Amino acid sequence: MTNTAVYTAFSQGALGQVLIDRLDEAAQFSEPGSGVTRLFCSQEHRDVLPLISHWMEQAGLTPQLDAAGNLVGRCSKAQAGEKTFIMGSHQDSVIEGGKYDGMLGVALPLLALEALKREGITLPYGVEVVAFGDEEGVRFPTTLVGSKALAGSVTPDQLEAKDAEGTTLQEALIAFGCTPKDIPHIARDPAKTLGFLEVHIEQGPILEQRNHAVGIVTALTGIERHRVKLSGKAGHAGTTPMDMRYDALVGAAEMVLAIDSVLQSTDNLVGVVGKLNVHPNAVNVIPAQVTFTVELRSPDANIRQRGREAVTAALQEVATRRSLALDMENTYSADAVTCADWMMASLEQACAHADQPAERLFSGAGHDGLAMQALTDIGMLFVRCKDGLSHHPDEAISAADGEAATRVIMAFLQQLGRP
Amino acid sequence: MTNTAVYTAFSQGALGQVLIDRLDEAAQFSEPGSGVTRLFCSQEHRDVLPLISHWMEQAGLTPQLDAAGNLVGRCSKAQAGEKTFIMGSHQDSVIEGGKYDGMLGVALPLLALEALKREGITLPYGVEVVAFGDEEGVRFPTTLVGSKALAGSVTPDQLEAKDAEGTTLQEALIAFGCTPKDIPHIARDPAKTLGFLEVHIEQGPILEQRNHAVGIVTALTGIERHRVKLSGKAGHAGTTPMDMRYDALVGAAEMVLAIDSVLQSTDNLVGVVGKLNVHPNAVNVIPAQVTFTVELRSPDANIRQRGREAVTAALQEVATRRSLALDMENTYSADAVTCADWMMASLEQACAHADQPAERLFSGAGHDGLAMQALTDIGMLFVRCKDGLSHHPDEAISAADGEAATRVIMAFLQQLGRP
């Protein structure tokens, strides 16, 4: 290990501060409003790319926008087709999200590579760092397109997914300057891929509770999403007697509470109705239609299935009792995936080198690893976040924790080259 | 009563068929598209005036377009300044509305007057029938200009209201051939006005349920509207434990049900949560804020007040229990207007003469009577409409019900002249 050498290039504390400064700068590429809003193939996405490209160049990587909207930085060994280790995370945010969810996992490995480069340390394998275009699935009712493209698992129907304005993902990619027809060609060769590692804020309260800067992820939650359409009958809100209404919003309200009740009463199952739209949405018209989303997450496939069955039964009961038409469509589904044992062990060793306690924890959120696991072994390092808060403008990490995580990754990368 | 004489002029069934035919003819003056679209001071408004003028002349009235865009038909007694009873309704429609909302209340009293005239029956007081230019408030963000002009309550700022193209109401009236500066001069003298009666389709299902052709309106509803803002805390929907959430949508769902419960359990109170917006409205984010509207309507100010108090208490209880911030703002309020006792009694008597059951009901919608009540006593007769449907191309009444209502008005007008 060459920790001492690294410390001479970036003095103690400097790496963390550089990381925080870079993430502050990236956060300025956001729609107006509170926090960070940067959606897939948006103007803000386009505008942040030169900054990430600059980080990549500083790290000795050559940046390139790929067919699926990922910005990929490759070292010369990776470009030459040598065996390559992939790192990265997503550039996109939720609406009014924070500075760290996603972008931390782009900026941090690039900073780690830059620090190694400044120390003159050459890694004996190829590296690439990817800023995936889309992980949050906010703009399109599909997600992980970037990491699926690397894993070779993008299906044609995913490219037909439409945003709220009716633009398909394929159209958005073309308008963004990408060539979605080439997506099949950017799938990585598993035989030439050493693994995939993502650094991410925890987005939960466990590391803060343990007072640890970082944690090693054991598995990623399984997720499913549904789109529910509930149809009643519009009517004049002044002249239709209360007992003769088919108010889709009153029905939807009962469903939201029924879903919450299933979730509150089931261990190892979480979920949310995050999106809900009323039609025609006028002050004096009885709501004719409500559409809403249901998301369920569990580390255990059986628990998630039983949760789905309970939710479905509750929705059907409400719809039948209220004579509302119910249409429920599964829009997304991803099984839970396990991190590779060797990756967890190696991260543990790297934590020891960087003087960081290294406990293991489970990820309740989905990440690009869900898709990358089809390609290669995956690992994840979590970084403590303030108040466990994420998807919120107040999302925060400390410079000290950022520094600790960067040094863990530097140690990890150096270990990886050794027999 | 001279019912027998009337029947000789229009045989049983003929009046209703004439009424339906006339309304079909009037409906042809519409913008292209489904149903009837005839806005205030539009080409369609201009084009329908000769037809209504013809009906007026057939009824023995002299038609004249007034300063506010109303077409007014006056009998010679009314023109001579004798005490006058006013009837009428609005010529305008909503976009893609039906044939009966408004125009029924123009065609029907004219047909009743024509039938009386053909019987040689002379009324011992003046009558006028008004086709008000605007009641729906579709083209301009103001409404009831015609009836307010008769009541002397048009304010100068109303004439400055602009349509979607930026044309002011004043400019539209001038282009239509009216002289809006004369509006103050067309206010009627309360001392010379006997009352105002409007015939209108019910726009609700009550008469259909009762199997009655007509109903006597007791009051035009009072309305209040509120904007509710409920604030919780956004958070990652996968990593925030269920028992640590402040989900504004789950809270709002409970509120929507609490409001519905107050409304379902209170007689003579209706209402709706018609508009609801979730923020940030993303599939995987715990809703941070929900805004929604609450509208309450009642003919009885005390009932409406108690309803508001019950709703407010329920919302506060939910907000407190769920640690959500509640902000409720009253955005609109209009008192109920009561129909005159003598008008209701007289309509009841007229219904008896026309062999029609005459139950009372309140109007959940607003009408020209809201403005006319400032001038004189008001009354309203509702006519059953198919499936309670209105503001829709399928809006319909039967010829038999039209006939029944016409005969009620004929009887009413003859009674009115007697001591």
Explained architecture:
The structure is a homodimer of 419-residue chains. Chain A is built from 13 helices and 14 strands. Chain A is of the alpha/beta class. Chain A has 2 domains: 3-221 and 336-416, Aminopeptidase; 223-334, Alpha-Beta Plaits (2-Layer Sandwich), CATH 3.30.70.360. In chain A, the strands form 2 sheets. In chain A, strands 1, 2, 3, 4, 5, 6, 12, 13 and 14 form a 9-stranded mixed β-sheet that branches. Chain A starts with a helix and ends with a helix. The interface between A and B is large, with 65 and 59 residues.
List keywords for this structure.
2 domains; Aminopeptidase; disordered N terminus; Alpha-Beta Plaits; 35% helix; alpha/beta; 14 strands; 419 residues; 5-stranded antiparallel β-sheet; homodimer; 9-stranded mixed β-sheet
Category from helices, strands and their pairing of chain A: alpha/beta
Order of helices and strands of chain A: HHHEEHEHEHHEHEEHEEEHEEHEHEH
Our estimate of the beta-strand percent of chain A is 15-25%
Helicity range of chain A? 25-40%
Counted beta strands of chain A: 14
Q: If you consult CATH, what is the topology of the largest domain in chain A? A: Aminopeptidase
Layout of secondary structure:
Two copies of one chain form a homodimer.
Chain A: H1 3-9, H2 14-27, H3 43-58, E1 62-65, E2 71-74, H4 76-79, E3 84-90, H5 104-118, E4 126-132, H6 145-151, H7 169-175, E5 193-201, H8 206-210, E6 214-220, E7 222-231, H9 248-264, E8 270-272, E9 276-279, E10 289-298, H10 301-321, E11 325-334, E12 337-338, H11 341-353, E13 360-363, H12 369-372, E14 378-383, H13 399-416
Parallel strand pairs in A: 3-4, 3-5, 5-14, 6-13
Antiparallel strand pairs in A: 1-2, 2-4, 6-12, 6-14, 7-10, 7-11, 8-10, 9-10
Helix pairs in contact in A: 2-5, 2-13, 3-5, 5-13, 9-10, 11-13
